[in-house]
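*** Query protein ***
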Amino acid sequence: MQHHQRLSVFVLLLQIMAALKSTVTILLASFYCTSCAFSFAPSSVTITSNNNLYRSHIEATVLSAKSDDDDDDDEVILSDSEDDWRTFRAKLVMGESSTSPSSSTPTTTTDSSSSNDNIIIDDSDLDGIGALFSSEETTVQQFTPLDPSQWAYDSGKVIEQGAVILGGVEQDFGFGLRQQYFHKAVILVLDHDENTFTKGIILNRPSDRMMEDDVNEGLEWRVWFGGDVQGLDSILPDIVCLHSLKGEEAKEASNPVMKDIQWTSFENAKKLVKKGIASGPEDFWLFAGYAGWGPKQLSGELERLSWYMCATDSQTLLKELARQSSGVDPRDAGLETWELLMNMIGRGETANDCSGNFDDLMLKEWGRGHLLKGYGGEVGVARNPLWGGGGGGGFLEEMDGSSVDDKMKEAAGMALTEDLKAGTLLRGSSADRSPFLLRKQELHHSLLLVIVEDDKATVACMLNHPATKGYDIVGYSKGAASLPLRYGGDFALKGQSPLIWLHCSQKLRDSGVGSSLSGQNEGIYKCEQEQALEAISYGIATPSDFLVISGVCVWPKLGGSLANEVKRGVFEVVPNEKQSLVIETLQTQTILTKDNLAENIKITQDAWDKAADPNSSCKSTGTDVVLTTGIGEGFDEDDDTVVFNSDKKVSELADDALQKWIATFLLGAPTLT
C-alpha cells in the first residue's frame, strides 16, 4: 500500500511540475531515497518483456541526488527543457509496476567515474526510455516496447492534454450499432478541463479522401477522420493539422500537445508550406472533425468501461501516423494501431478476445462507406465551400456507381414516380448491401405501412417487431389471450390513441369493423380499439386477427420524403395482392422473449420474402458466394459482397445487426447475441 501511495504522490508532483512549465526543485528523500545516494547513471539496460530482450542506452544522467551525509537538503532537479516530463513519469510508473513489494530494489550505479566510460549513444532514443533504472534485467509487466524509444502504460483515470483515449470493449453496449467510428478508436487529447470541455481527435481513421490547397497550387492534403463534431461531411469541417516541425516559426504558429507533437490550423499549415518551412502536406496529418465531451462526461464514461486511458510517448504516435500514411487501407479502420497500444499497456489478452467480432466488422463497413474516396465522396460531400461545390444530386448521383448495389439501382428505376398513398405497404430494400446496415437497423428487411400522407410528412409504422409486452384481451370466449404489442417507431400521433389496431380480414371488412386506409374496400384496415374488442367479444373476430402497433415513423417532406426513399430503392412497394399473405404471416409472431427471438426474426424474414414483387428480380436469392484467394486465405479484397479482409458476407452482417438491435432495444439484452 505504501509503495503505491509513494508513486501516486510522486506522479501528482510531476503533474504540478508540468503545469508550472518551469525548472522545479522537489524533495524526494522521503519517497525513494532509502540509501545514501540515488541517481540514474548512464548505463546499458536490458528489458525483458514477453520473452523478448530489448537493449537500450542513454547519453546523460537523468536524475542526480546528494548523499545523506551532505549538509544540504536532498534534492532532485528536473528541467522540462532537457527531457519530456511524461517520459520521466513513465519510467517511475513502469519501474514500480515491474518491482513487487517483496523484491529487492534494482541496483543503481552512482560511480560516475566508471559509468561514463560505458556510455553508448543511441540517437533513436528520443524519449529516454533507455534510462530504465538499472543495468539488471528487469521484467516490465505493463510495457511492450517495439524499440528503445517507445513506451506506454495504462494511466487509470488520469485525463490530461497529450493523453490517449482507447476505445473500450468491455461495456455491455458497444459501438457496433451506433457511432461505429468510436469502436477501438485511438484518441489524442488536445485540450482538457474537467469542468468545461474535453477535445480530442481520432488518430487511427485514415481516409483516402483529399482536400485541395488554395494557397499552394496543385497540392492536395490527405484527410483523417478526426471525429463526429464538424467532421468529414460537415459543410465547414473543423480542421486540425498535427506535425512535429522543429523550427521556431512553426512552433509560434502552433499549439503544443506533447513533446514533438503540435497542432495548427489548416490555414497556418498551408502558409508554412508556402514559406518553405514545411516541405509539403507530407509534413502534416490533417484531421477533419473532433470528439468532444462536456463537463465530467468523459470521467463517467471511464467508469462504465467505455474507454481506457493510456499514456504513451510521441514517437509511438508519430510512427503509427507515418505507417498509416504509407498505403494502409482505410477499410481496416486503424484496428492495428489500437491493438498495438492495447498490447503495450498490458491489455493484449482483452484485445485478442474481441478480435474480428461483430463490432470490428461493423467498423470496417463504416470505414468502407466513409473513408474511401469513391464511396464517401470528397470532404464535405461536395457541399464543402473549400471545394467550391454546389448542392449535388440525389443518392444515386452523389455516390460512385460501383458503391450502389445493382438491385437498388433496378428498384430505383422501377419505383413509382408519384407520391405514396395511405395504405401502401413497403418492404425494406432487398439489396445485398443493406442501406440499414450502419444505422436504423430496425428498418432492415422491415415491413412498413403508410398510414398518413399529406403535404407536410409521411407517417408509417413498422409491423414486424413484437415487443416484450402484450395487450391482454378480456372477455374472450376461449379464455385469456394476449396480443403482442409491436414497436412501430419512435413517434406518436398527436391527439390519437397511442395504439394502432390493424386487420386484413375480409370477414371483418364485411362486418364494418374499421375503415380502409387506402379509401378502397380492400387491403389493410385501421380500426378503433373499442371496435376490435367488441368484435372479439361477439365472436366476429379472434385476437389473432389484429396487429396492435405502438409508435410510428415520420418522414418530413422537407429534406427528403419517404417517396424519395422508394425512388432510391431504399424501400420497395409490396403489391396489393400480397398484403393479406404478409399480414397473416406476421400474425403468427408472439410476445418477444429470449427464447423466441430467433423464431420471431425467422417469421419476419418469411413475411418479407412473401412481400416480394414477382415481376421484379429484386429479391433475396440466398446463393452462396464462392470466395477467391486475395489478400489472405479465403479473402478477396475486391469482393464487395463480403466485409473487407474477412469471409463474412455483408448480407449476413446486416441480419446480425438487426438481431443485435432487437436484442438490445426491444429485449434489453445487448449481450445475448
The chain has a mean pLDDT of 77. The longest strand covers residues 186-193.
